[in-house]
Write a structure and sequence with these properties.
Helix 3 packs antiparallel against helix 15, helix 10 runs parallel beside helix 12 and helix 12 runs parallel beside helix 13. This protein folds into two domains: 101 residues, no CATH class; 294 residues, TIM Barrel, CATH 3.20.20. The two termini are 28 Å apart. Helices cover 56% and strands 11% of the residues. The protein is built from 16 helices and eight strands. It has an eight-stranded parallel β-barrel with strand order 1-2-3-4-5-6-7-8, surrounded by eight helices. It is α/β, with parallel strands linked by helices and 402 residues long.
């Protein structure tokens, strides 16, 4: 029986000193006004060259980021490997535009793949299409999408002018090169989900890559955001399309990361919000998606990427009910580094295939990612409190057994 309350397993990889630091960090993230102030001032302070790098590096960076370089991530990956926890590498640089930058980022993704291939503990890496494609170009393609689902892999390039068509072809070529490198090196590529107003071409291109590369094994996975009201159906349609075109579906199930932004835009532009009305509805669709995937494990590969205890437990229970092994080769669990250790390490202890999502990159470049983590932890109902409660419980346990 898996229990996520076992803090001894959850924090075995952390020293007493590291736990004390984590306690301080999560206590700070529970203070709403401090998080608001910090997320506004930090990016500005970094740009203005204020001497705060050391402070950030020793607190929030150390908690949520694997390191500044691939070599630094090796230490974290080796430590996690001791507890049967794998790694998903994510080159966490975002928000830069320009062809030179896009080519550089695509080349970095290929370096990540080549590095992962040399490590026994890194089966996947994550890519963000906006890392090597212009946001405005994706937006234009999305607005012109035929069926507004992307599931058929069709992209209407006729809305683009001659220069934009060439620009789009460069985006496609970058992703093909990344997927070819992944296929050669036996590393899975997880394509991140984006905002709804650019998601359609991302889905369509990812479906094209799956059709091309997921013939005999799964190389490419699409991230499906279940806080959207249309994504459970999208998952079902994706599997139907995969069967029709004879490829294996790779599905990474997430809840979603842009809720406030999505709702605000929908209200401002007067269209129905694409986000489900409440957490219960999102949970219901997420768990229904898990159930659907486990029903069809012979035709797809599933990554349960969630910090929700019930959803992870539900996936494990469904496997057990079907007399399938917890380490089924088509099922993988994952949580972000620095969060939900009680889920990750207890799943690993039970024998599940599980990983930590490990972002890395120069400090100044991963600031947007870190600010999102801080906001997410303070805005997700009870997340910070739960993390803090578990850390305190483990500190107390160690004191009493010392």
């Amino acid at each position: 029986m898996i229990s996520f309350d076992n803090t001894e397993f959850a924090f075995a990889y952390k020293t007493y000193k590291e736990l004390k630091k984590a306690k301080f960090l999560f206590s700070s993230m529970g203070i709403g006004w401090l998080v608001k102030l910090g997320t506004r001032l930090t990016p500005w302070a970094i740009k203005a060259h204020f001497p705060i790098n050391g402070l950030i590096r020793n607190t929030i960076f150390k908690q949520f980021v694997g390191g500044e370089t691939l070599q630094e991530t090796a230490k974290v990956a080796d430590k996690l490997a001791q507890y049967n926890v794998q790694v998903i590498l994510d080159y966490g640089v975002e928000g830069k535009e320009g062809e030179e930058s896009f080519d550089y980022v695509a080349a970095e993704f290929i370096k990540v793949i080549q590095y992962a291939a040399t490590q026994p503990n890194i089966p996947f890496m994550s890519v963000k299409l906006t890392g090597f494609a212009r946001f405005g170009l994706l937006e234009k393609l999305d607005a012109a999408a035929d069926n507004k689902s992307g599931v058929e892999g069709r992209i209407n390039v006729n809305v683009l002018d001659a220069n934009e068509k060439e620009e789009w072809q460069r985006v496609v070529n970058r992703l093909i090169k990344i997927c070819e490198a992944a296929q050669r090196n036996n590393v899975g590529v997880l394509v991140d989900a984006e905002e709804t107003w650019i998601q359609d071409p991302v889905d369509a291109l990812t479906m094209q890559m799956m059709e091309r590369f997921n013939k005999s094994k799964v190389v490419v996975y699409n991230a499906i955001q279940l806080y959207r009201h249309d994504r459970l159906q999208f998952l079902k349609d994706s599997l139907e399309e995969a069967q029709k075109k004879n490829f294996i579906l790779g599905a990474k199930l997430v809840r979603g990361a842009y809720m406030e932004k999505e709702r605000k835009r929908a209200a401002a532009m007067n269209y129905p919000s694409p986000i489900l009305p409440d957490k219960e509805s999102s949970d219901k669709d997420y768990n229904a998606a898990i159930e659907f995937c486990i029903e069809h494990l012979d035709k797809l590969f599933l990554i349960v990427a969630s910090h929700n205890e019930y959803s992870n437990l539900y996936a494990a229970q469904l496997l057990q009910q079907k007399n399938l092994p917890l380490n089924h080769s088509h099922v993988h669990f994952s949580q972000l580094l620095g969060m939900s250790d009680n889920i990750t390490f207890n799943l690993a202890k039970a024998g599940c295939s599980v990983s930590k999502y490990l972002p890395f990159g120069p400090l100044k470049d991963v600031i947007p990612y870190l600010m999102r983590r801080a906001q997410e932890n303070s805005s997700v109902s009870g997340q910070t409190g739960r993390e803090l409660q578990l850390i305190k419980k483990e500190l107390q346990r160690r004191k009493s057994t010392a």
